[in-house]
Structures are given as structure tokens and as C-alpha cells.
Specification:
Layout: H1 2-11, E1 16-21, H2 25-35, E2 38-39, H3 43-47, E3 52-55, H4 62-71, E4 75-79, H5 86-96, E5 101-104, H6 111-117, E6 125-131, H7 143-158, E7 163-171, E8 180-187, E9 192-198, E10 205-212, E11 215-220, E12 225-234, E13 237-246, H8 252-255, E14 266-267, H9 288-298, H10 301-304, E15 306-307, E16 339-343
Parallel strand pairs: 1-2, 3-4, 4-5, 6-9
Antiparallel strand pairs: 1-16, 3-16, 5-14, 6-10, 7-8, 7-15, 8-9, 10-11, 11-12, 12-13
Helix pairs in contact: 4-5, 7-9
Amino acid sequence: MGRNHVRLLSALPGAELVGIYDPDSRSAEAAAREHGARIFPRLEELAGEIEAAVVAAPTVAHAEMGCALLARGLHVLIEKPLAASLGEADRLLAAAGDRVLAVGHVEFFNPAVQALLAVDTPPRFVEVQRLGVFSPRSLDVDVILDLMIHDLQILHALDPSPVEEVRATGIAVLSPRIDIANVRLQFASGGVANLTASRVSSERARKLRAFLPNRYYSLDYQAQEIKGYRLEEGGGERRRARRALEARARSLCRRLPGRAGTSGGRSARETGAGDGAGGGGGDPVGEVPKEAFDAAASRRPEQDRWPRRRGPHHPGPLLPASPPPDGRRGRTATGSSPLLAFRLPSLPSGGGEAGREGLGE
């Protein structure tokens, strides 16, 4: 993931790639050699020479590194998920002040997703499948924060009404954490969503289907294609009409190097990561991954039903560090992805809007 950011930032107009910090010297040397970047042995040394940074490290390090950089007055883009817990996300929001704190939710900028959002009518039912093959990357978090977080954020944009109920189940298959999960969400609008995320499938599949009265939309995240179908009245009979909304849009990442401005992601406040410095009062979507994880981790039908509470965040950690049962195979993440740094000549040091373009997946 970090190398994607290095590649794009090295070619992004309006930004100067200053250097890389990565405890894994081999990864740092490979990225620096390929893109002509300087390697910094300590984070503090790098932070003293830059105006903005990208944190593409393991999720468990996001809060510590992000807060340290924000405290120095830097603008920061953090790869998704923003943090490993709601408490850590609140710490980052409190530290941001008037600096830009953005989250790398690149899937939101998929042209097919933007076409679906332009429909501007909340769907009554949404079905999502995000399946991937196993990789040792991102095993410090469960599949909900690793993969499903994309779809939870897009669902909130499709239907911003509060989530009233979360039902979920999940299984740890090849790692100590949940590798496959199914989540059912009930919205206050009456809409329902069923999401499946897996990182232990034999093939990749990333699709979303949205159903509305008399029409539905089928979205392929990988092909960046969306197709719409509707019922039409004609000649006294109802017939199905197929309408392609947008097909095979150019790859977002290929377009990025030619775009000027700040890099990557949505503002942390835009994504629903928190509602302010203290996080009090609750937020529309920030608690959903925690509730989905808690329901999935229980793996007991009587505990799958979890009516959503109103008010402040639920206390307690998002990902309790409990060891797997004896005999279960597991793998742990090793190494880390680099932290990148760059200058933004057009961005004032006191703040500005988060960039609207994603950098990596």
C-alpha cells in the first residue's frame, strides 16, 4: 500500500515527495530507489522537513503516528481505516485542529459509485459482496475494518439515516482475527443492507446491488461499471428496460498523476469517523464497525441481535486482543508500510479542505 502512495506522489503535480520513513529498511530502500526518494531513519527528522504526510502503516500505529504529526502542525492523510478503535479516532480528531486530516477511502471516488450516488434516492435493499484472496497484509485488524469499511462508508452516503439494528456473524479462518463476516443493517428509513466481506476466498469479487421500487442497479467495483434496470409501462403491459448509467470509466489511479491539488481521501469528519474532539453525542456511522465486530465475534445466535443505542460511543476497545483458541491456525502481520512525506506549495499551513481524490486501495 505504501508503495502505491510513493508512486503516485512522486508524479503528482503540486506536490514534492521529500522522503520516506519505514522501520523495514528493505521496503524503504526499494521504494526510494524506484522513485528517487530520500530515506529518513527517524520519524521526527522527517517531520521537521515537510508540510504534509501520508500514514500507510499498520492500523494499530495510525493513532500514535498521526497524532505526533498533527502535533507538529502537519496535514495528514491516513490510510483506511482511520484507527483501530473509536477512542483512537477521537484522539486523532482532537489533535487535528485546523489541519487537514483525511482518510484514504479511495472506493468512494470510484466513478461507478459516484454514478450511483447521483441517483439521490435511498435504496430499499442493498446487497454487497467484497471477497478477496488471502494475503498477510492488514492482519492486525479484522475483515470488517480491512475490507467491509469501504462498503459501510458508501452505505452511509447512500442512506444517511441512523442505523437502528446490527446483526452479524464472523469466523476466524486463517488468522487470529475474523476473516469472513456477514452483517445485516437496518436503517431508520426502513432500508436494509446485507454485506459479506471475506479475505479467504478463492476469487476476488466486489459487487453491490441496490434495489428501489420498480428499478435496481448493479455495480461492479473492479470494472468500475454500473448498470440500471427499471420497469416501464407501455402498450398496456409492463416491461423491463435496461439502462447503462456508466461503463468502464477510466481507472481512477491512472487519472491521479495528472490532477493537481492535495492528495487522497475524504475529511475524517466527512466520513463519520467522529463528530468532534471528544466524540460525544454519537456519530452516524463511526460505531457501526464496532457493533458489527462485536456481534460477529460473539458467534452466538442469541447475541447476534444488537439494537443500536443512541448517544455517545460505546465504551471499550474495538478489537479486543484475545488470542485464538488452541489449535487454530493463525498468521500475524510482519513489517510495515512506509510513511510518506511531501510538500504542498499551494496548501496554506493553517488548514484547507481535504483532497477529493483517493490514492490507493
